[in-house]
């Protein structure tokens, strides 16, 4: 296939006849599944299932991450023509990747959302697929980790973020984007000794044993030294990766609910993600893309690239 196939290819989210391969329909038209993958609820034989959780409530400053999955899918239409540059292989040709669509929930029944996320991700995991989730605020990672740990036990966590999200929260009924990791560690979902948070640049009195590689240390020590510390911390443990888009400096991703200056540049994030190839990654998410606060679309573009990198990481050992 090549670009001339745009003459006949359209709506590949519904019309493509294979779960593998690139798509060449016009970027400005057609149904906007992630990377023009087939929309399907049939997970038979699927290697990676991309899914959206359009949920946010009571974020620190600027709501709107519920629109993140839609914006990330639209931004991804620019990436569907070619393998991701620099990887040396095409993950869409070595794995069956689908867009599993968004999770359904009643917006007026917020208390039901955690269990629905847990069950939604459980369906993907039980089918043998690795989940790549488009959020949504950072709360969604907690019930995702519940689903993962129920099947794999406590996992190592690699967290890209401006905030460590381990503020004390002992109320099991609170749904809070800023305390997901505190609860995940308290519930035994995450092994803090094998976990690392990258890009942090806010104070927190207790990081609960998670290794903190703050943004100044990344800037000072460089990508390779940072990667060495991540690898030493995670080791050969099964790991889950969560990427809060505010790990990036607002200059690169202004469309987020909690922007903090001094963050990672997009090139640093790209190099760090690629440097994780070979780890035992079992899934990941990108959260807190809030497109109403970025009319340029740069934040959604960054989110789409993060999701693509997650897919490439999942495909590394299958290449």
From TrEMBL:
Binds 2 manganese ions per subunit. Mn(2+) binds at residues 138, 161, 163, 165, 244, 246. Its cofactor is Mn(2+). It is an enzyme of class 3 (hydrolase). PROSITE patterns: ARGINASE_1, ARGINASE_2. Keywords: Hydrolase, Manganese, Metal-binding. GO terms for molecular function: agmatinase activity; metal ion binding. It comes from the Bacteria. GO terms for biological process: putrescine biosynthetic process from arginine, via agmatine. Its EC number is 3.5.3.11. Belongs to the arginase family. Agmatinase subfamily. This is Agmatinase. It comes from Paracoccus hibiscisoli. The gene is speB.
